[in-house]
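--- STAGE predict ---
source: upstream dedup step, 1 unique chain passed
mode: sequence only
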Amino acid sequence: VRIRAVGAVLFLLIGLQFLNSSGPDNGAMTSGSSDETFVKDDARFPEGIPPWCLDQETHAGRETYAVPVHLEINVDDHRSWSTNVFEAWLSRGVIGHTVITDQFKGNYGASVVLTYPDGHRCVDRAQIRIHGDMGDHLRPGLNGIETSLDVRLESGHAAGIIHFKLFLPETRRGDNEVFATSLASEVGLLSPRTFFIEATVNGMETRYLLQEKFRNEFLEQNQIPESPIFQGDERVGQQWTKHEDSEDVL
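--- STAGE serialize ---
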C-alpha cells in the first residue's frame, strides 16, 4: 500500500510539471533561445511596454539617430505656465525693461512626445523653461504667447540630443542659423546640431529651430573624450543680469 501511495504522488508531481512546462501561451512573454527573452506590447501587461523606443542605428562604427519631425510638449501646470509666459511678455512694455529677467525662467515639468518619419512616437518627461535674453523670444500667436524654450529630457533623446534650445526662428535669423552651423561642421569646426522642427506646445502649433546645448552628448557626437568645456559668459558686460552661478557656465 505504501509503495502504491508513493507511486501515485510521484505520478501526480510529474503530471503537474508537464502541465506547467507545456501550458498555453498567454501572449505576454515569448521565449526564443535560452538566453533571449522579450516581452510583447500587450495592453494587459503595461509593465512590458518599453518606457522609450529604440531609434538608433549603427553606421560606419558610429551611432546615428533618426531626426524627429514633430515635437509635442504638454506642461503639467498649464495655468501657471501660461500665466508666467503672459507676465513675461507684459514686462517687455515696462519702461527700462526690454529683456526677459530670471524671475520668469523657472523650470516646469512636462510630458514630451517625439514623432519620427516612419510614424512611431516616443514619450518622455522633460523640464522646460522660457529661454532668451531679449524680448524677441516672446511673441503673440493665434492661441497665446509663443516663446523660445530651454528643454532637458529626463530619459530619452531627440536625435541623440538631451539638452536643447527651441528658438523662435526669427531670433536666430531662421535658415541662416542652419546654414552657418552646417557649414561650420562641414569644414571641421565644432558646431551644435541644428534643425527645424514642427512643434505643439500646450496645443499651440509652432515651428521651432532646435539646437543642441554644449553638454556631454555634444562631445560624444564629435567623438571627443569627456573634458572641461569653456564657453564665453555673455553676462559679462551686460548690465541686465546678475553675475551668479549658472548651469550654463562650466
